[in-house]
Design brief:
Blueprint lengths: L22 E5 L6 H11 L4 E2 L3 E2 L14 E2 L2 H9 L3 E7 L2 E6 H9 L4 E4 L2 H10 L4 E6 L3 H11 L4 H15 L7 E4 L3 H16 L2
Parallel strand pairs: 1-7, 1-8, 2-7, 3-4, 8-9
Antiparallel strand pairs: 3-6, 5-6
Helix pairs in contact: 1-7, 5-6
Length: 204
């Protein structure tokens, strides 16, 4: 963990001496392969900074502060919320999650490209503050294919899978919010398309 990534309370000042970085947003329904694609994309583009979210929930086994999430108190989260410190945020099952606006502002002003892995709700919030960001939605080839992937994953019971499919249907219905849509039918092909998109957008 580096100290410049921890979400501070104050927004960074823009720099006019260099190219402004590009903010990439990647969204997908659960089971569509977003995590795998994000990891592969970061390996392809080592200079692409990954925005680590903050959360008020307790760390799970194996999770590391500053790597998986920044683990902060509810009081700290709400204090930053009142100061406009979150570029996007949500409350999920009683815990807060958010993306530091200061981190994004500093990185982009320094000419660094940033990858943000968030859901559709978070994307709508980000677009209000960063309307020129590059939004990419990862689609499964079909809901039935998504069901098969979730069942093969073996981490959820049937009831949870059904809930995930309902959420997936709602998220997929909003794909037109995104500038690009990549169908992950074949992981190598989806990664190749995603790589081309990021390379093209980053060098505009």
């Amino acid at each position: 963990m580096t100290s410049d990534q921890r979400p501070p309370e104050h927004r960074g000042e823009p720099s006019f001496n260099r190219r402004r970085g590009t903010l990439f947003i990647l969204s997908a329904p659960s089971g569509a392969g977003k995590t795998t694609l994000c990891q592969a994309l970061r390996e392809r583009f080592p200079a692409l900074k990954y925005s680590v979210s903050a959360t008020t929930r307790s760390p799970r086994k194996g999770e590391r502060d500053g790597m998986d999430y920044f683990f902060i108190s509810r009081e700290d989260f709400r204090a930053r919320l009142e100061k406009g410190g979150w570029a996007e945020w949500a409350e999920v099952y009683g815990n807060y999650y958010g993306t530091s606006a200061a981190f994004l502002d500093r990185a982009l002003a320094a000419g660094e490209d940033v990858l943000l892995d968030i859901d559709v709700q978070g994307t709508r919030q980000i677009l209000r503050m960063y309307p020129d960001c590059v939004t990419i939605f990862i689609m499964p080839p079909s809901l039935e294919a998504l069901r098969e992937r979730l069942e093969k994953r073996g981490t959820d019971n049937p009831e949870v899978i059904e809930k995930r499919l309902v959420s997936a249907r709602e998220e997929m219905a909003q794909k037109d919010l995104y500038r690009h849509v990549v169908v992950n039918d074949s992981l190598p092909e989806a990664l190749a398309e995603l790589t081309r998109l990021v390379a093209a957008e980053a060098h505009r």
